[in-house]
Amino acid sequence: MPIRRTRVILTSTRDAPVRVRSFLNELEDVIPFSRRINRGRQGLDAILRKAKFFQASYLVVVGIRKGNPWFFLVYDLYTSSLKYNLRILGVTLRKEILKVEKDSKKVRKGCIGSIEHDIIKKLLLDLGYYSISSCDAYAYGEVIITEDDRKLYQVKFLDNQNNILGPIIRFDYNEGID
Fold this sequence. Notes:
- The chain is an alpha/beta fold.
- Helix content is 21%, strand content 36%.
- A 9-stranded mixed sheet has the order 2-1-3-4-5-9-8-7-6, with helices on both faces.
- Helix 1 links the parallel strand 1 and strand 2.
- The termini are far apart.
- Keywords: Ribosome biogenesis.
């Protein structure tokens, strides 16, 4: 059986709770040519070897805090270096909004609809949102100011009829490395 093309490997830190596994499943649906790998108790070296076996370009590791996604690390597998380190301040899962279990198909072509945050835009380009026509999904972002004056950048994945396709992710606006 041939191995399907994989550009991005998704995993979490060890022993992910249900909410983080659901988040990764929804990310797998909206990131083109991605594959989720169960980490279990494997070390990062074992996950890196698996990612290289699949000839992936990037490894995304979602960190956990109090049962929720907390950070988003992206490793460039060609240079073996950390490319992005973003703090997640909140997520809303698609299944929480629509109250339905998985019924979406995987995105093959993603476009950037409207993203003003440079680091998030570069991240999405690296993760496969670079098509310019006939897209299955569009990524949109907006700045949100919370009640305690915290600045967030919210990213949504929508289809061409503005239906939600994946999780809504709120990143810390001021954090991240290039």
